[in-house]
Write a structure and sequence with these properties.
Length: 343
Amino acid sequence: MPADEDVSDIDNSQDGPDHTVRAGADHAGWRLDRFLSRSLPEFSRSRLQQLLEQGAVCLGGRTIKDANHRVKPEDVYTVAVPPAAPALPQGQDIPLAIVHEDKDLIVIDKPAGLVVHPAAGNPDGTLVNALIGHCGPGMLSIGGEERPGIVHRLDKDTSGLLVAAKTERAMASLAKQFANHTIERAYHAVVWGAPRQASGLIESQIGRNPFDRKRMSVLRSGGKTARTRYQVLEKFGPPERPFASLVECRLETGRTHQIRVHLTHLGHPLVGDPQYGRARAAPRAKTPAEEAAFTAATEFSRQALHAYVLGFQHPSLHKTLRFESPWPADFAALVAALRGLSG
């Protein structure tokens, strides 16, 4: 499986026509997802929960998205199942910021907002679709048809450098380097507050949160070993209580959401992270610069994480390639605004 890979629990095998189900007296008070699961056994419960989230379930013309909605006798629910998506990703003409390309591989500077590979909720418009459109349908044979050429991934709202393989040889070589942790990967992150230690190693077991399968978390047992080295590069605000800080993170392993989970575990979640962090209350601004800094941080629209260094051994040239990506405009503006805080 590609490094940093999300695992989908969604079963898409039962897409087809609409379904209508009526609740009986014995269903009174049931959770809607439980009722639908019992009434439509051909669907997995996770698939029905996905359909709920997508607004595909209606009661008398009213869309119901809450899985905890309580069923009443004689309620009639319609489940509108979308048609099955194409079995294979399709090439699309999506602009790519190409940092390097040769016959073996391609290095992309991924913008925030671009999903890496098709999945539930993002059937197309992904980096995979763009790669097939740019490199040709031959990409489909590289490493698997669902995620062709993808050796590792970045979260949708993480920007920065990513390498994809164009040949099976390159795929095998890069996958081995990721597995052996010899790939150089460095990220810049803006976090709330500042770690007490200026640098250190965060080491833990990471796995799916037992109470929320969409989140990862540090586990006392189970999961996979994860190691992140960090260094505080800059603090913003009073030295005794910084409002935020710029941190460099270097991955020694590649687990799903590793940096986001580890920094949250350290007590300093990423600015703008809707899944693992929350906006901090801003102190009362004394100057226009402070007002601008607080606003920039509390209203930042994505997790403030950028993959700025990527280095690896080229599969054919047998030399090390190393790339650096400048901060995207939104990240640079955030740091510039935070530098306006008085120290």
